[in-house]
Amino acid sequence: MFVDEIEIFAGIWKEFKNKVSSLSLDFSEKNFRENLEWERLLFGKILPHLEGEGCLVIAVAGGTNTGKSTLLNVLLKKDFTPVHHFAAATKRPILVASKSKAHQCLQNKLFLEFEAKEMENKEEALDEALPGDILLIKEEDTLTDAYLYLDTPDIDSIKKEHWDIAEKIVSAGDIIIAVLVDVKYKDDAVVQFFRRANEEGKYVIPVMNKVYNDDPELLQIAKEQIEDFMKEVGLNEDVPYFYFFTYPRNENFLNKPIPSLSDNNLDLRDYICSLPVRETKEKVMKKTIERFNKQFCEWFSKKFIPQLDSLQTRLENYEYHLRKIVEADFNPFAGFQLEKELEFELRKQIGYFRYLVLLPASIFSGHRSIAKQLEGQKKDWEIAINEQHRLMIEKCVGDFLENLIKFDFVPEMDSLNKHIKERLHLLNNQREQIFKNVLIQVEKKLSTTPKGMEVEIKNIVQKFLESPELKGLRRRRLLSWLIVGMGTGALFFTPILYSAVPILVSISQPLIVGGTMLGSALLEIKSYRDFLYEVKNLHTQWVQEKREEFFQILKDEILLSVLGVIYDYLKLAEQLKGEAEKIFSYELNAMQTMTETLPKEDICSP
């Protein structure tokens, strides 16, 4: 990754965390509030140290009562940090640096996860009342800009706050001095801590402290213990390691050497100064970035994406069940007779006389008299439809709330599950109010005859009336009317015509039937079939649109009320996902080839 990409990603992540924390419920604590290693590397090491002058951050770390503060004072040959015989004395980290570097630190440019404060006296490091993110800064004129020295709280303290501080300090470090004692050099917490520092690319330098004398036998034991520690941590055999004697309290030991157990001529101070600053810094940064990429991509692929997919699947299932209930129980405007609307529109557009002459009775048989009354009936009709809506809404809301109660929400996230159950219980007690809210919205959005549909009906009717086939049938229709008229007249004047023209009376009924069939030829033409298809398709489309609108109303009133915090989170998470996939495309593709894709499960079936 390039510098600008890292800065872009850091900004995206900070914005994401800020937005998630501002949601009504923080349910992401397992994934976003835990001590993420890649996040510590990003803000503790990569961002502040990737550019600018190279300087080595030397952190002294170790378990409880191993003498970390003593060793730092010896390294600097000056009494900077408080030393006490009781365990876990150092509560807040201390940084000792040159004037210019101390100034940079006080401006919060090198340690982004801490709030820098100038140390007035060394006893402040013992004050647990100070905020946990305080970094005490001590200026030392004898130091060059090439080195910063840090004293850290215990890495195995009974207080987790001390662990977090130590981990952040070590993440920012380049050289980590592992202070050991013979009674806890292989403690699990100690080994795990320094193994992680080694994997992050730090220079881990073991120092066995509190060695009682220079007896060769005791030194050999100390050597074997350090080598055993190095194997556990994964350090190379050629890494130098050191020791420090235990001196009487009244003796000044600040100028004493910290000799090597692997090379008797090497002192820890000299070894640190022998390391090339720029090359060492570059080597640590390269490994840190590699570690950061690996850790982020593992977290993203194995934690973030599965949680995101799980929540999305749950919501999809909730919405699916809601949609099925709507489709099964909500028939928008049941009782609406499309034929009446169409007949009314046809008669209105072409005039009643042309309508009567041009169109055969068989098209809308039995509806002409109803169509005349349609406008007068609309008010009563709408009242009846609204009552049907009310009954359907009550059933849909009731059924969906009952289904939600049966669903398994997010049991692995206790706080989120509790929040959802509370919201659901509240909504369940407010069913009547939900019915009213939904009914009001239905009446507003789902009118009896939507304006858009009225326009579509007019367009379909006009297209039908202007079809060439229909115009070509006018003569046939007039002929059919003439034949039907002759047959009807013959029947009407049967008593008069029977003796004069008996043949006409005998064919009167065939004339009526034939004329009617001739007029009904309209039903067979393509334009009429297209007309019926378009009308039917319009009605189907309209019903589906109204169901979709009703589904959205129920979603807003119920799902968003119960699961709104998940919807908000998913929107933010999708933004983060998109940006991360752009920046880490190569690493994530490599990770995907190593990880099997698990199928989504129907995790919220009742």
Cα Rg: 43 Å
CATH topology of the largest domain: Rossmann fold
CATH class of the largest domain: Alpha Beta
Terminal residue distance = 46 Å
CATH architecture designation of the largest domain: 3-Layer(aba) Sandwich
**CATH superfamily annotation of the largest domain:** P-loop containing nucleotide triphosphate hydrolases
So what's the overall shape? elongated
Strand order of the largest sheet: 3-4-2-5-1-6-7-8
Summarize the biggest pleated sheet: 8 strands, mixed
Mean pLDDT: 77
Question: Any idea how many domains?
Answer: 4
Oligomer: single chain
Count of helical regions: 24
Main structural class: alpha/beta
Strand content: 5-15%
Low-confidence stretches: 361-372, 594-606
Question: Any overview of this molecule?
Answer:
There is one protein chain. The chain has helices at 3-21, 29-33, 37-49, 68-76, 99-106, 160-172, 188-199, 216-233, 268-274, 277-329, 338-350, 352-358, 368-372, 374-406, 414-428, 431-445, 451-465, 468-472, 474-492, 494-500, 502-506, 508-519, 526-583, 585-594; strands at 56-62, 94-97, 115-118, 134-139, 147-151, 175-180, 203-211, 242-245. With 606 residues, the chain is of the alpha/beta class. It folds into 4 domains: 1-34; 35-300, 3-Layer(aba) Sandwich (Rossmann fold); 330-467 and 525-567, no CATH class; 474-524. It has an 8-stranded mixed sheet with strand order 3-4-2-5-1-6-7-8, sandwiched between helices. Helix 1 packs across helix 3. The radius of gyration is 43 Å and the shape is elongated. It starts with a helix and ends in a 12-residue tail after the last helix. Mean pLDDT is 77; it is low at 361-372 and 594-606.
